Structure of Glycoside hydrolase family 15 protein:
Amino acid sequence: MKNMNYAVIGNCKSAALISEKGSIDWYCVPDFNSASVFAKILDDEIGGSFEIITDNSYSIKQSYIRSTNIVSTTFTSGDNCFEVIDFMPRYKNNGEYFNPSEIIRYFRYRSGNPVFSILYNPKMEYAKYNTEIVAEDEYIKSSTTEGEYDSIYLYTNIDKQAIIQQKPIHLKEDAYVLVAYDEKLLTQTLDRQYLKLQKTKVYWLDWANSLTSFKSYNKEIVRSALILKLLSYDKTGAVLAAATTSLPESAGEERNWDYRFCWIRDASMSIKIMSKLGHLNTVKRFMKFIIDIIPDKDEKIQIMYGINREKNLTEETLTHLKGYKNSAPVRIGNAAYVQKQNDIYGVLVDVIYQQFIQFEISLENSESLWTIVRSIVRIVENNWQKPDKGIWEIRTDEKHFTFSKVLCWVALDRAIKIADIIHKEKYLKEWQKLANTIKTDILENAWNDEKGAFTQFYGSKDMDAANLLMESYGFIDAKDPKYIQTVIETEKELCYNGLMYRYKNQDDFGLPTSSFTICTFWLINALDAVGQRKKAKLMFDQLLKYSNHVGLFSEDLDFETKELLGNFPQAYSHLALIDTAINLSKGKITEDEQILEAIH
């Protein structure tokens, strides 16, 4: 498989990756961050999968059912045709959301005499131990025989022995397979699965229909919004960075991390986008998550948390798995949780500010959020002059990163705006003085006269794509010559083959060899902001073509082959896609913009 041609299904509890051939190659149960049952994507020999096997005469076509997170894979050989509809149930039932830890594969008979076999090969607990598969009256049960006990149940109206023994299955009418973490209390039937399918379809259609519509790129916005929603965890309101672990940023290298956690930065950016799209409930749940994880006024804010509010995310290596395309190590947990990254404060206060100006917030939550804002101002006051690890989580030396300093200013700027909204004038003078001090420090120390641009850290000559966000966060005007020159210099140094490096200086693992997808979206937005709209739109249209067959992006792109790399699907990439699409949807290219483009 040249590209990461997977569709993702999910129900805000867990998620699974379905290959373009209809194989479930990644699924963790009962939650996003639980141990895997199917992990072929991390080891094609022992990882485990749930495959539908046909002979070579079948052509296979895969797509999402429009405006849903339900996947259709159609198998056709002449007159013989069947469709597999994969989904995880999600809908309201008696006022509560019904989203059990289960996958339903609905086999829809289309025509002729289609024949296939099933390779059902679950490997519980990241395939650490042997998994025993036994057919019983009601179900096929799979369970571990050593180590931590775990089990999973398969219900079906297909002959169970035919599944276990991989015998040919002649489909003459609709059928189903249900893979459930919990033993079912009700008798499972085809009609019951069909009802779940229809209810889930209606849920997603209603959800997508409630999004704000835009005159351009609406299809891409909806798909990306559906992905962001899928990656939000109902139980706590956390938003995941991605659904996978250890998919490498570059094949064969060691930049492999577990992204099944809630980064304050990534999640806050996702929530800001959800606010723009009008989805109040997702936003409310995330703000509750923030209130829950920061209970004490002097508690240190981590850069990331577990989706169930865990604070200790100890990193562990699974040495028995060979990794995606032999890219070891496979990691679970993430040691970056102990890092200091000063940019998270600005991102968080910015998203809190968005809530105050866009939505009605209960008095209780308003007071809790105001307490958090004041706590963050104190943290920024005590830490903004100190070096940190920066947005890119450099694991060696700490630096005075420009982006971190800018976001410290953002924290003060948004705190001042919030204080003004809620009439807490007594804070304004002191906070404004600190904001001015930080801004002056940045303008004096982050600007490099030799480069004629704002550089990665104080005293550096290297460019950093994150500095393109200085304008969108309101630190500097798009017409400011220093910002325009920074955009020009950043593109010149970091753009290659129409894609962006995060930075090009050596880091802990050497020179990055793949493009960080979000950075290309940032460049497109920056070009648009400084008046190069036509160029920005051409670059955006080209970038959209690099998505996979169902419109999804991972974290990275190979500069040469455009292969998707890194964890998948990536919330960061999709939130930036939405933001860029919204910006480019505003109006036509004006005469003034054409003149500006000619100048540049």
Observations:
- The CA atoms of residues 79 and 416 lie 68 Å apart.
- The first strand starts at residue 6 and ends at 10.
- Residues 587-591 have pLDDT under 50 and may be disordered.
- Residues 363-383 form the longest helix (21 residues).
